[in-house]
Amino acid sequence: MSSALANHILGVAASGEKALGVFVTSGFPTPAETLSILNAIDEGGADFIELGMPFSDPLAEGLPIQHSSKVALKAGITMKQTLETARKFTAGSKTPLVLMGYANPIVKYGLSNFFRDARSSGVQGVILPDVLPEQDSPFLLAARENGVDLINLIAPTTPEERIRFIDSISTGFVYAVSVTGVTGSDLGSKKPIQTYLKRAAEILGHNPLLVGFGIRSHADVVEMAEHTQGAIVGSALVAVIDALWEDGSLSSLDRLKGVKSFVHELKYGISHG
Amino acid sequence: MSISHDLVQKLPDGNGRFGPYGGSYVPEILVPALQELVINFTQAWGDPTFQQAYHELLETYVGRPTALTFANRLTEELGGAKIYLKREDLCHTGAHKINNTIGQILLARRMGKTRIIAETGAGQHGVATATVCAKFGMPCIVYMGAEDMERQHLNVMRMKLLGAEVRPAVSGSQTLKDATNEAIRDWVTNVRDTFYIIGSVVGPHPYPMMVRTLHEVIGNEVKSQLKQAEGRSLPDALVACVGGGSNAMGLFGPFLGDSSVQMFGVEASGEGLDGLHAATLTLGEPGVLHGAMSYLLQDAEGQISLAHSISAGLDYPGVGPEHSYLKDTGRVSYLTASDSEAIMGVKLLSSTEGIIPALETAHAIAALPSLVTQFPKDAVLVVNCSGRGDKDMGTISNYV
Lengths: 273, 400
Hints:
- The complex is a heterodimer of chains A (273) and B (400).
- With 273 residues, chain A is α/β, with parallel strands linked by helices.
- Chain A is built from 12 helices and 9 strands.
- Chain A has a domain at 19-148 and 216-266: Alpha-Beta Barrel (TIM Barrel).
- Chain A is 49% helix and 13% strand.
- Chain A is globular.
- The N and C termini of chain A lie far apart (40 Å).
- The longest helix of chain B is centred in the first third of the chain and has 15 residues, at 31-45.
- Chain B has a 6-stranded mixed sheet, sandwiched between helices. In chain B, strands 7-6-5-8 form a 4-stranded parallel sheet, sandwiched between helices.
- Chain B has helices at residues 2-9, 31-45, 48-62, 72-78, 97-110, 124-136, 146-151, 153-161, 176-189, 207-215, 217-230, 246-252, 280-283, 321-329, 339-353, 359-366, 368-372, 393-397; strands spanning 17-18, 21-22, 68-70, 82-87, 115-120, 140-145, 165-169, 194-196, 237-241, 262-270, 285-289, 292-296, 333-338, 380-385.
- Chain B has 18 helices and 14 strands.
- The interface between A and B is large, with 39 and 37 residues.
């Protein structure tokens, strides 16, 4: 299956780099600042960006993203605002944007309306950690109909046969959850994670493999992505944003510089001036 | 065994669906564990050794069969159909919840799991889980909303005394919904050695089916007890309160195929249907929460709304998926009772029958005055007296 997002990730990997995906919650700390934060992440060198659609009951999230979702919802973030931010970002950047969120707000919005509006906002893929990959699921049909990649996850508990099935049903990439846990978990001993990722990479035949959950630094990216095309960082950036915005002595320009510099260091291992 | 026959005959289908409801909406990490659970529960339920262990504990530890009491003074007072009470309040720990935790802990042991987690709202399921963990010597962690821990302090003490660790859920509204989120996050993290004992007919497949099946002992006993008392095994109607809906499914389940039996579920309308309430089936819309598609209380953006009920056990913005299906098909009628009607229900049952019901149960009692007069005087209604009211005396004392 040909996917622009998959080709983009494979292109980055072919150049000898690891593809870096960076997650941020839409509407955090405020809906008005999300676009500037996306641009700062882009300038920092992210190869693609995941924009989180906040949900009141995010099952797969650890504390930083739970907190950011709560703040964004309190600030009144809506699905329409998130899609509008996506549209503005993709109008000004070639960096692929994917949306990540939970089933209920999408069911409420209407599946075909959601994937149609995501597509027209320039969104290339959607990740829904509480929607299981299923042949002919209404989510998959609506995504396909609108030419949006539905990116599925695998976990350390996923058997080989199911990894093969998930690969066959996914487009864009396959998202390997590093450890049994929520986002931002401690990685613990890295050896078993690498063994699992190596095995998963060998099984995959249709999609690039990216690893996420608990990845905090450039060193983590390098180590965890040894057998994958790249890695995804979320909670660590959300925590950095939280700290930057809590610091009353910083100007908004300083804060955005801080975001850019953190992403640059994740990607290249050196901070950006 | 007739019960495994029921499993085949009834919904859910192979994907855990009750019509469009149910299913599994969970992180991929849990998929093998849920598949393992489906296989193990089905095998265990068909295994006479498991059945024997389960029924022996229900008899010698829980105190089953529980009585079916003819509520003669209540019947007289209301002037309508004959009312029988299925006395789940007489179960060990004071409510029906333990039927389920006995079954699930036997399954956990059979599957070689070494650590038990649970969520709790009012604390009744937490106590029932802590109780069986003590009985079987297994470590137990109960997630409970920080706000509920204050409201239900006595149950927190009971759980601690029983050896459980009670972990406050401090996210979101700090109630049952958030305790459930925390329990699922724990399970995602410790899935290899941990068994999650869910307390109602909610959650991903197979929980709604499994929890219903483990509570169907309630309805099955009613069938034979009514035969003794009235010379017929089928009542004219069944009544039960519905939060997540486990006591209702336990009573309704064995009668679903008996079309002459009418069924009424009573939800909590809290301050009133135009105020804060927990009437999920009455006013909610279908959506996805805690692993299943079902009716939910939600806003225009699909964010989950806060529920409210005077009864912590009904204070939940979701409901079991099978109830959603039974509502849509019209098989069960869903009514509501408000906070003040529930207090009236407590007083009514206490003064006429000498039984102080739990606030949850009081919602079912509150529906009776208008319900019984719709039936002829020789009709028979069975109400699930799902729990006793000792735990609620603090709340009730504000109204007496």
